[in-house]
Design brief:
Helix content: over 70%
Order of helices and strands: HHHHHHH
Strand content: under 5%
Largest sheet: none
Structural class: mainly alpha
Shape: elongated
Bound molecules: fe (ii) ion
Number of domains: 2
CATH architecture of the largest domain: Up-down Bundle
Number of strands: 0
CATH topology of the largest domain: Ferritin
CATH class of the largest domain: Mainly Alpha
């Protein structure tokens, strides 16, 4: 498809979003199944229902403009979903897996928020007011989903991931003296990269953990 006008670009971006949502409809049940925290699992299932409606909204728009949604694969979403699959395959501890799933899901939400914000603005510029309204509805839902994930992360899941890790280390130290297993060291590396410890210093919080928390402050927002 040639991209000569803003309308061409609008259709191209809509196709990309349709492909992204279709891929997500397949991925979300796997994320819901992998999640250990019941609230997190429920959040993924709720978002699956929303995503199905978002696909329908896009199809309604395609019908209105007389175009097909097919013909493009969203490789951005493919990559984000692949990262989620890799995390699940790593089989991390339950609490760490949940924190990681939130991180992957928030990457997805932010990607979609960028896409829908763009097409909503294009629709306004092109004078497609009804379509702009439909796209705004989806944009709002993606924003809400992102906020809910932040609440789940900051409410308990990140802290559980941080404290579960600490308990295991203490156990290892009591049973094996001061020798640290290589697995524990590996997990420590994964904690540094996946867990937001910032406000988590409070739980079980040694100053050592508090110090590390600063390094990872920016994740899972
Ligand atoms: Fe979506």
């Amino acid at each position: 498809m040639e991209l000569n006008t803003l309308r061409d670009l609008y259709i191209d971006e809509l196709k990309d979003l349709w492909s992204a949502e279709k891929q997500l409809v397949k991925a979300l049940p796997k994320m819901a199944k992998a999640a250990n925290d019941p609230e997190l699992s429920k959040a993924f299932t709720t978002h699956l229902r929303q995503t199905e409606r978002q696909v329908q909204r896009l199809e309604q728009i395609f019908e209105e403009i007389g175009e097909s949604p097919r013909g493009k694969k969203c490789v951005g979403m493919e990559g984000l979903i692949e990262e989620g699959s890799e995390l699940i395959k790593e089989k991390p501890d339950a609490e760490v897996l949940d924190a990681g799933l939130i991180s992957k899901a928030q990457h997805v939400e932010h990607y979609e928020i960028a896409g829908y914000g763009t097409v909503r603005t294009y629709a306004q510029l092109l004078g497609y007011d009804r379509q702009a309204q439909l796209l705004q509805e989806t944009l709002d839902e993606e924003g809400e989903a992102d906020k809910l994930l932040t609440q789940l992360a900051e409410g308990s899941i990140n802290l559980e991931a941080a404290s579960a890790e600490g308990e295991e280390e203490e156990e290892a130290e009591t049973t094996r003296g001061s020798r640290r297993s290589s697995k524990a060291s590996e997990r420590e590396v994964s904690r540094r990269t996946t867990v937001e410890g910032g406000r988590g210093g409070a739980r079980g919080g040694s100053s050592r953990r508090g110090g590390r928390a600063k390094e990872t402050e920016s994740s899972a927002r």
